[in-house]
Design brief:
mainly alpha; Herpes Virus-1; 2 domains; two-stranded antiparallel sheet
Length: about 180
């Protein structure tokens, strides 16, 4: 965690029109400073906020206020996503295999809802805390649960691909994207 430096008043003896160089890109001239820490920044490093331009470090520091998750919450999200995917995927895949063409329509209709439901279950399991990486651990849990589910069903039914269909793929993509976006 970086500690922001207080804004230094401009040097009265220095030429006010003299260009500075970006703190992150020393070869880039700039006339812009972060309005919070006063660091010279170029347009690549500047983020326009409602109160002016700020450096990415100050933006990240301010956003940290909203993230209150503990490290264990990431692993809880991973485990919940993997367990739900492991249990639910064989039923979902079977549904889309027997519905044929209509499976695509069903997948498009319920995929996002399933992802939102998964996100809400994960939110409740971590005590409604928010974390910067919870959504990444959730996607990893979905992938691990999907692979484990495929391995288990391949041992039972002797075919790894027997539970994969286009409808199931559409469902999986929509559910994953919705869960990822909901957990922001």
């Amino acid at each position: 965690m970086t500690v922001s430096q207080p804004i230094q008043p401009p040097d009265k003896t220095a030429d006010a029109g003299a260009p500075m160089f970006c703190a992150n890109h020393p070869e880039t001239e700039t006339y812009l400073r972060c309005n919070k820490c006063g660091k010279p920044i170029c347009l690549k490093c500047a983020v326009l906020t409602e109160v002016g331009y700020r450096c990415k470090e100050c933006i990240r520091e301010q956003q940290n206020v909203f993230y209150n998750a503990m490290t264990s919450d990431n692993w809880i999200a991973f485990a919940v996503a993997a367990a739900i995917t492991l249990v639910a995927w064989p039923f979902v895949a079977w549904l889309f295999r027997i519905t044929g063409f209509f499976g695509w329509i069903i997948a498009a209709l319920i995929g996002s809802g399933a992802g939102a439901s998964l996100a809400q279950i994960i939110r409740k399991s971590v005590g409604r805390r928010r974390g910067r990486y919870i959504r990444h651990f959730t996607i990893a849990g979905i992938v691990v649960g999907l692979v484990l589910s495929g391995l288990v069903t391949s041992m039972i039914f002797a075919s790894f691909l027997s539970f994969f269909s286009l409808g199931g793929l559409i469902f999986l993509i929509l559910a994953s994207i919705t869960a990822f976006q909901t957990l922001r």
